[in-house]
Amino acid sequence: MIFDKYLNSLKGKRVFVIGAGVSNTPLIEALLAFDIDVTICDMRTRGELGVAADNFENKGAKLRLGESYLNDIDADMIFRTPGIMPWIPEFKKAVANGAVLTSEMEVFIDLCPCKIIGITGSDGKTTTTSIIGSILKNAGKTVQVGGNIGTPLLSRVDSIQPNDIAVLELSSFQLISMRQSPHISVVTNLSPNHLDVHKDMVEYADAKLNIVLYQKSSDRAVLNYDNSYTRNYAQSTDAQVTFFSRREKLTNGVYLDNGVIYESKDGVATKILSVDDVVLPGIHNVENYMAAIAAVQGLATSDAIVKTAREFSGVNHRIEFVGELKGARYYNDSIATTPSRSIAALNAFDEKAVVLIAGGKGKELSYDELAKVAAERTKAVMLIGEEAETIRTAIINTPGFDSELPIQIHNTLEGAVSAAAEIAQEGDVVLFSPACASFDMFRNFEERGDVFRKIVNRLGIGD
User: Fold this and answer.
1) Is 218 exposed, middle or buried (0-12, 13-18, 19+ CB in 10 A)?
2) Which are the contacts of 17, defined by CB distance < 8 A and separation ≥ 6?
3) For residue 261, how far is the Cα from the chain centroid?
4) Sign of CA dihedral 136, 138, 140, 143
5) Hey, CA dihedral for 424, 428, 433, 435, is it positive or negative?
6) What are 220's strand-pairing partners?
7) Given this model, what pLDDT does residue 193 score?
8) Residue 1: its pLDDT value, please?
9) CA gap 205, 198 in Å, rounded
10) Which of the 8 DSSP states describes residue 462?
11) What is the mean pLDDT of each run of 10 residues along the chain (463 residues)?
12) Per-residue pLDDT, 150
């Protein structure tokens, strides 16, 4: 058994696991089951960890909790949580003293016995990951979907068969220390993101580049031709490159032309999918399908692709239809933690028919382009959170701004939704697409979206 053998190799070593969150908990459980010397380091207090702290200790773990959780890491092996960068002084010191720094995802990729498809990008990676997984399942494949999408796979690696396919969503935080790339790598797009964590755009782009950097000539890199960053990634990989584009007819690749997605080989184009078959709204989801089609070449038939397009209704918190009230439709797009994602969501709906709810914690990104689109395409804007005033200022400073556009700032999400409901009329869309992180008011974007859904249901809107 692959994982058992790996765990046995850690016996006698001091293993530190940084962060007792979703991705690391199954790993911790497995390490403790093999009587490995485990120290769990977490910035949360014992009270914040709750019963999990007692459970870990009862199974033999040592705990380092609170503000000093990273002090004096005396380890042979360190499993890093994706939220903490590998270059922090505490890690550098430990590595200098002989520790091996890795992560749950890095070990999984190293041990996984089957073909791996990895997906990253600034926007669309979760939806594209889910689309690829659905297409492959409809093609009769056994598929393991995980990674940043929320399902850790390392502890399940022994149940994965060589003929399975692992489909992994990978974030920049996971990729930044990767030294191995998937067999098929997909980069949906690239735009400024997480600049509150990454020191600059160069570092962020370089982290994403790792998904193709270590590919072999027998591997495949699926890249967005319309995005200058991702197009240039082709120069940094030994893999066979397949581009996708909605703007250019490609001689080799996947492209959009007059509402039809084609796959072209040496200039010979084959129709794969009509855009009319795609139930997900928005041109950005058409791009997600093009990326997915390029990824599953040779692994799935066009019938499996069309079946998925007609049946796959999306992922929670990603332009998720919540319900309707007085003819107005309500959508939860809480995943939109950047302006570019909210722009894509706005562009998915008819002009001037959207009441936008946005705002949250900033990520040191510009709102100028979002402000321009919001000024042009919304009938009202409701703002919440730390960035509310910054977004409002960006909108009113947009050239040609219509001073009659209602812009309101609310202290709570419930207040914003209630105000939006008063403005929205038949045929309108109330779109919750924050363009910001959630951490000023919520634990994460999932909780934020769940709260939005509950508010909508309390108003009697939910379906």
Assistant:
1) exposed
2) 24, 27, 28, 31, 38, 39, 40, 41, 78, 79
3) 24
4) positive
5) negative
6) 184, 240
7) 62
8) 85
9) 10
10) B
11) 94 96 89 96 92 94 95 95 90 96 95 97 91 98 89 90 97 91 96 67 89 97 96 97 97 97 96 94 92 98 97 85 89 93 88 91 94 95 98 95 94 97 94 96 94 91 47
12) 66
| Model pLDDT, residue 111 | 96
Residue partners of 91: CB distance under 8 A and separation at least 6 = 73, 78, 80, 84, 101
320-325 β-sheet, strand order: 320-325, 328-332, 429-432, 354-358, 378-383, 407-409
DSSP string, 47-98: HHHTHHHHHHHHTT-EEEESTTTTSS---SEEE--TTS-TTSHHHHHHHHTT
Which residues are registered as beta bridge partners of 326?
A: none
Q: Please report which residue ranges of 59-200 form alpha helices under DSSP H.
A: 89-96, 104-111, 125-138, 172-175
Q: Strand, helix or coil at 254?
A: strand
8 Å CB contact between 256 and 283: no
Give the helix/strand (H/E) hosting 201: helix 201-213
**CA–CA dist 43, 110 (Å, integer):** 28
Please provide the size of the chain in residues: 463
Q: DSSP character for 99?
A: P
Q: How far apart are CA 428 and CA 421, in angstroms?
A: 10
DSSP state for residue 298 in the 8-state scheme: T
- β-partners of residue 332 are 320, 432
Query: In 170-319, at which residue ranges do the beta strands (DSSP E only) sit?
Result: 184-187, 220-224, 240-245, 253-257, 260-265, 268-274
Q: Are residues 400 and 406 in contact, defined by beta-carbon separation less than 8 angstroms?
A: no
- For the chain, what percentages of helix, strand and coil (3-state, to nearest 5) are there? 35, 20, 40
Contact 462, 324 (CB under 8 A): no
197 neighbors 85 (Cβ within 8 angstroms) = yes
CA distances from 353 to 93, 350, 382 (A): 55, 6, 14
Write the DSSP string, 390-428. HHHHHHHTSTT--TTS-EEE-SSHHHHHHHHHHH--TT-
Q: For each of the domains in the chain, give its residue range(s) and CATH number, in order of start.
A: 13-102 (3.40.50.720), 106-311 (3.40.1190.10), 320-458 (3.90.190.20)
Tokens, residue 237 = 């990989």
Residue 338 has which token pair? Answer: 């950047």
**What values do phi and psi take at 6, rounded to 5?**
-65, -45
pTM check: above 0.70: yes
Torsion over CA of 256, 262, 268 and 270, rounded to 10 degrees? -150
Q: What is the pLDDT of residue 199?
A: 67
Tell me the β-bridge partners of 429.
Answer: 329, 354
Q: Which residues contact 164 (CB under 8 A, 6 or more apart)?
A: 114, 115, 141, 142, 143, 144
What is the enclosing helix (H) or strand (E) of 448? Answer: helix 445-458
